[in-house]
């Protein structure tokens, strides 16, 4: 219990396919987790009870207010209506991907000079953005976990312009059952997006690092 209290508190925004899985693996790793969707938390009480036992359903503002890390797991097509003030001053993990066939064409994300998390960061200028967990399927997130040191433990990339935030989230990734490969900028996080060298790939740490190093590093000053 003492260790649990020392871990960052996590708020998961989104109770669709992705949010409950993230909440479940985080709870299994010892984190205290709240889940929020739009509206009254009673609307997602049954979802959390069944799909993420131990998670606390809360109003989004309340969940964020008590959280050290906010996991943004909403459908991307809803992001343009997301209120930046809700997560101002917070560390936000962007797990979203831009999929026009699913989300429809979203004008906000059509500027291909930027990666999707860079666009999220521009939309949330008072938040610190970390990109991760977007390049593995939510349906694999639970089954692919392995203890540290396992020869088949999968690697996941963690990208941010803020190294402290990146390292904090990388610790979460390690604790839930993956090796974290740290990338030094959100621009480098473009390598984690659909079409990138590691998107959807189940790679060990060395293979993952080699795959991202083999690609030309995006220049964050020249989008």
TrEMBL record:
Residue ranges of domain Pyrroline-5-carboxylate reductase catalytic N-terminal in the record: 9-98
Keywords: Oxidoreductase
The UniProt record lists the keyword Endoplasmic reticulum: no
A molecular function (GO) term: oxidoreductase activity
InterPro entries attached to this UniProt entry: NAD(P)-bd_dom_sf (IPR036291), P5C_Rdtase_cat_N (IPR028939), STEAP_metalloreductase (IPR051267)
UniProt KW ATP-binding keyword: no
Organism domain of life: Bacteria
Stretch list, region Disordered: 139-159
Database matches in PANTHER family: DUDULIN-RELATED
Name this protein carries in UniProt: Dinucleotide-binding enzyme
Record organism: Plantactinospora soyae
């Amino acid at each position: 219990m003492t260790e649990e209290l020392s871990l960052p508190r996590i708020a998961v925004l989104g109770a669709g396919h992705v949010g409950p899985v993230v909440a479940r693996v985080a709870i299994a790793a010892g984190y205290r987790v709240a889940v929020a969707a739009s509206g009254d938390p009673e609307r997602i009480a049954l979802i959390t009870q069944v799909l993420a036992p131990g998670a606390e359903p809360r109003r989004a503002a309340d969940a964020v207010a008590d959280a050290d890390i906010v996991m943004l797991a909403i459908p991307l097509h809803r992001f343009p209506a997301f209120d930046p003030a809700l997560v101002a001053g917070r560390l936000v993990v962007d797990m979203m991907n831009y999929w026009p066939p699913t989300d429809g064409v979203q004008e906000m994300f059509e500027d291909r000079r930027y990666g999707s998390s860079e666009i999220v960061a521009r939309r949330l200028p008072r938040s610190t953005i970390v990109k991760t967990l977007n390049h593995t399927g939510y349906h694999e997130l639970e089954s692919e976990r392995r203890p540290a040191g396992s020869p088949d433990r999968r690697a996941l990339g963690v990208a941010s312009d803020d190294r402290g935030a990146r390292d904090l989230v990388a610790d979460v990734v390690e604790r839930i059952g993956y090796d974290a490969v740290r990338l030094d900028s959100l621009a480098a996080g473009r390598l984690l997006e659909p079409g990138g060298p590691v998107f959807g790939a189940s790679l060990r740490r060395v293979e993952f690092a080699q795959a991202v190093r083999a690609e030309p590093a995006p220049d964050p000053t020249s989008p």
